[in-house]
Amino acid sequence: MNRMSRSFSQFIRYAAVGLASNGIGFLLYLLMTTLGFGSKVSMSLLYIVGVLQSFIFNRKWTFNYNGNKKVALFRYFLIYGFGYFINFGALVMFVDRFGYPHHWVQGGMILVVAVFIFVMQKIWVFRVQETYKCYLN
Fold it and tell me: In angstroms, what CA-CA distances link 65 with 20, 30, 70, 84, 116?
């Protein structure tokens, strides 16, 4: 399978994991905010749960990664942490400052953060490194 086909296949699997995870997460977000939880508290709690479960599916199914799990998990948390602050900042800016409806902002941010995170997983978190041996005579 060439590099482009492999990337496309990975993106499809990543999208499937993301759609299932974020679809359920968004419904829980709407439920939590309806029950009186704040938008940022709801997003924060659900973000943590989503990160943990998606690491397992993306490592095993999306990227078929067999490298160092500890390093990958550390990197995974870093990119999701960065994605969290992008998401949180968008809620503060567009909901608190400009008054947009929180559910529209959060729905849009799911897509923005998802693309960012896929690219970072592909090029950094689950990157397959070629190992080359150098033999000196």
Answer: 21, 33, 12, 24, 19
